[in-house]
Design goal:
- It is a single chain.
- This protein is mostly helical.
- Helices cover about 85% and strands about 0% of the residues.
- The protein has 5 helices and no strands.
- The radius of gyration is 16 Å and the shape is globular.
- The chain starts with a helix and ends with a helix.
Length: about 190
Amino acid sequence: MSVLTLSLTAISLSTDAFAAALARGSKEVRPRALTAVRVGAVFGGAEGLMALAGWMAARTFAPVITALDHWIALVLLCFIGVRMIREGLASDAEPDEAGPPPGFATTILTALGTSVDSAAVGVALGLSGASAYAALVIGLASFSLSTIGYLIGPYAREALGRKAEILGGLVLIAIGVSIFVDHTWGG
């Protein structure tokens, strides 16, 4: 696998994590570098570990992973997306006030939901003979983009108000549906 192909693959897999981290960051009043790094580490770790798990399981579990990953992504991302939309539509909240940021467990669930496609890519990488190094590149790309997404999230909230949370929820649902449709009907 060429460096360009690996880089484009890593960036493509990281866009979901970027969008989710942006939505997560929009719940903050002020971005904090340490929290941004933690959120980035969760997303980057999930992407990298899922790619590595897929790579390691390529020969044995490829049919199982590709048969389930789109269902896992759909359920997790839709659940979290609906929750964000409900919070964004809550009538008792101030329209441009940030609510409490999601907890660590929600961040982990979101990271898992956005990274299940990395397992399928890891399977493809393993079957193609690519090195396990590819999983590290995927994890680092996701870490970087997620950290940036979290840091600019509060500014997106300032520009959009509560609509940022609703938009973030819609984005997560769209990502889940897109993964599902792509894996179900995309070939």
